[in-house]
Amino acid sequence: MKWFYRCILTLNSTILLIVVYLIKEQVVLPIPNLNENCSYGIYVLSTVLFSGICLLISNFLGEDIIEGGIVDIEPANNSYLPSYLGYFFIALSVNNKFTLAWVFVLIFIFTFNSQTLFFNPMFLLFGFKFYYVTTDSGLKIFVISRKNIRSLKGLQFTNLRRINNYTFIDWRG
């Protein structure tokens, strides 16, 4: 299940690259009486829906806990956003479907094999935030959570789902 979820999460994290390309190329869905703005809205809404499905699937991952031993926590939203915006610039600069396909496959492979690049700005719409948590053993992990963390005092993560050894999602926050 974990491998499958990582594939789905990777696809979800990179799919906006294709959405931006389709909008840039003004690709309209082949549905009668559907204008381009409706098509673009469907593209964007489908990524939001897909993100929601990814969040629901995460409930089936293995459970984990981080309590005590947290020595530092820092927001990760700002550090990943520039990387994610890079996908937009790539999508805007790619000039054909063949190149887009190859670029997408390469980004997908790199994102899948990375330990922490499951940042998906669509999760922000569902109230999730992204954090780097450093444990007392020096391990720095990536946590996706609804918690609004301002202090280490009493901080516990008791309802985590493990995506991989370095990435966790706190689905219920």
From TrEMBL:
- Entry keyword set: Membrane, Transmembrane, Transmembrane helix
Residue ranges of the TM segments: 7-23, 43-62, 83-110, 122-143
Q: Which domain of life is it from?
A: Bacteria
Record-given protein name = Uncharacterized protein
Organism equals Anaerobium acetethylicum
